Amino acid sequence: QFGRTEVIDNTLNPDFVRKFILDYFFEEKQNLRFDLYDVDSKSPDLSKHDFLGQAFCTLGEIVGSSGSRLEKPLTGIPGKKCGTIILSAEELGNCRDVATMQFCANKLDKKDFFGKSDPFLVFYRSNEDGTFPIYNKTEVVKNTLNPVWQAFSIPVRALCNGDYDRTIKVEVYDWDRDGRHSHDFIGEFTTSYRELARGQSQFNIYEVVNPKKKMKKKKYLNSGTVTLLSFTVESEYTFLDYIKGGTQINFTVAIDFTASNGNPSQSTSLHYMNPYQLNAYAMALKAVGEIIQDYDSDKMFPALGFGAKLPPDGHVSHEFPLNGDPDNPACSGIEGILDAYHQSLKTVQLYGPTNFAPVVNHVARYAAAEQDGSQYFVLLIITDGVISDMAQTKEAIVSVS
Question: Domains of the chain (ranges plus CATH)?
């Protein structure tokens, strides 16, 4: 049991408020069960209450359904309609912004006896407990008192943990080439996300101060200045953002029917037709397919074979439909693919060579027809070994990318 909702009194159409936070893993099948009870007493023991029905689904099914909202009939009481359960999921809104910034400095203190300084910056963020963990260092710019550092990107979370006014401390050092001593401290300044977000302006020119020097010298102004050259923020979208936006995942499978797999009638073959359990190919297909099918609304999956001789004339094909229909190689659900796979094992002759390029190009043709970005194509190639057309396969992958 993962959790319980609150009890809502006297209604047949309850709208439960309590949310349940689950870790979501795209690549795992996360089975869920929802049981509904009519509560008549304060007892926590479920057997003391009336069972109203249950529903089963996967977390992927909820996330993958339109608007991440799934309706399921409640079942579990023979001969009785138990109503409907509506499940919805949303991703916890964590800050996904990434900030990119660039700094330069002017008239930094000269630290090296012979040349100029070799300056670099070190950034620290302040924590609630008063500590300052380091979160970034720039590269070293050699032999200059007026360095321009390269731009760098950092998640806004790492910068300030969502608190825009939190202090960010920056220290300026002169890199020490012999490494025996620590790098020479030139000075420091503080800022915050809110200040940096103003971008290049008079507010973002900082005096670099060395506190020790300041205490010693009355006329000390600073050890140079650091200027923010640019600051931009972009959002990084997650996989779930795309799914919520209506992206459909199209799943195609291609199975290796070359002779190196061994004779399907023998138990040593990867294609062994065992009446009692799935062979290696079927297991791999099911493992990947059952995850992906939750994100495809029509559950129609093209299934191809390659490297076999086909009836009636025994010509070798590297992209034949497992269901025997060249116009529409799509099978209904993972079970449909497994049926077509077992059927074709009985009719084709394992042969060779092991060519990948035809199936890669096959899926590429379908993907190229969808220009609006609403379709994402996944090709699962299940194979036992060495690729015969490596040059063409590389070429195909480069062109599809």
Answer: 1-91 (no CATH), 97-235 (2.60.40.150), 247-400 (3.40.50)
